[in-house]
Each structure stands twice: as C-alpha cells, then as structure tokens.
From TrEMBL:
Transmembrane segments: none
Subcellular location: Cytoplasm
GO cellular-component term (any): cytoplasm
CDD domains given in the database record: HTH_CueR (cd01108)
GO biological process: positive regulation of DNA-templated transcription
Protein name as it appears in the record: Cu(I)-responsive transcriptional regulator
The UniProt record lists the keyword Transcription regulation: yes
Amino acid sequence: MNIGQASARSGVSAKMVRHYEAIGLLAAARSNNGYRVYGDRDIAVLRFIRHARDLGFPLEDVRRLLALWRDRGRASAEVKQLALAHVAALETKADSLRSMAASLRHLADHCHGDDRPDCPILEDLARKELGR
C-alpha cells in the first residue's frame, strides 16, 4: 500500500509516517520506481508508535519500546521499568500543571474583571518578567 493508505489504516498522518521513517523508527520498502510501499507489519508498527505517543512517551522511549516489542526474548521487567518511569514523569508534570492552574486561579480571583485598568494577572506576569 502507498503512504496515503498506510496513513489511513494506521491513524498516523503521512507527514509523521515520513518523519518516523527519517528518524529510523520505521523502515518502509521501496518499489522499483522509488515509492514507499507499506505492508501489514508497517501498519502494526505505526499503530504501536501512535499509541505510545498518545500515552505521551517521548520518541527515545518509543524507540526503546519498539526494540523491546520486536525482541521476543525480552524481559518484561525492562518494559515495566520504562512505563513506571514515564508514569513518574507524567505525575510530576501533572503536579506542575496543577500548581500553575492554582496560581492562575488565585490571580484571576483577585482580578476585578471590570472596566478598571488594574489587573493583578498582568502585574504578576510583569513582575516575573522583571525577575522580581
């Protein structure tokens, strides 16, 4: 199948299919005229990548996960370790996002939101910009 068909079947845009091929996550065969040709195994790899990316795994972790997936002699402990490290990173990021939301909520609660020019949100942003 061609790249458009592979894109449709995998749910990965043609641009990202090319990108994954360029960075070595996917190795599509080439026809005699140089066009990429994708098979069912390529679609499975693209779906794997898409799902891993949907879970927020960075590309280097996706590369490691793909290698582990392809290695039938792997130990599941390595996969679990990678997944739990990602969980920890996601939880840290979620904590940071909650903290940002709380700060912004506090500022918004103290903004009158009327016709007056005073705005604690802008004042806080300016203060942070000036390094205060």
